[in-house]
Model the fold of this input.
Amino acid sequence: MAYVVYKGATVYFSENVYEPAEDSFLLADACIDYIRDNSRVLEIGTGSGFVSAVIRANKKNVDLIASDLNPHALNCAKNNNVEVIRSDLFGGFKPAHQFDTIVFNPPYLPTGDDERLQGWINFAFDGGEDGRDTIRRFLSEVNQYLKPNGNMLLLVSSLTNPKEVIRLMNNEDFNVSTICEDSCFFEKLMVLHGKLDS
Ligand SMILES: C[S@@+](CC[C@H](N)C(=O)[O-])C[C@H]1O[C@@H](n2cnc3c(N)ncnc32)[C@H](O)[C@@H]1O
Done:
């Protein structure tokens, strides 16, 4: 099985599961900077469990749970010692303002009907026609699961129209800042930090 070693974490990944890439590394770095020790964290769409495993390796006493809807990802994340449940976004959680931080590297590629991939791996990439289908759903629910003063870390791409994502976040009462960026081959990646107005 293939694996990646990053900042103290060794993470295995398998077929039908998103292979950790530049977007995963950028979000993991942001998590190390912004997640506090002794806090409660939810990672939506954990894939192999890479980001959660890096958080675990670098933060003390973090109460961390992850989710994904791809069953192959669940197996993979469990093998990487990440506690994970099967859930479509927040479907498996109670809206009880329970997390200090929620992180998500969503499927964000603009994808037409004829561009979809076969099988579960499509969920790693397919952001719908404008790349923001899953992001819109996520943002319409996320603040019900965050504590007052909670934080959100969301990976976005220049392909996803970050200005529009920021507008959506502002509409949901988040103060937003861009905390890190990385230019890749065909896109610019960034992590948006959303802090709830309390
Ligand atoms: C770009 S991959 C990121 C994987 C991993 N977090 C990383 O950074 O390497 C997006 C992940 O979100 C999952 N996903 C997509 N839509 C989802 C949904 N509605 N609910 C839960 N997970 C979802 C996919 O299965 C995939 O594992």
The two ends are 45 Å apart (CA to CA). The first strand starts at residue 2 and ends at 6. The chain has one domain: 2-196. The longest helix spans residues 22-34.
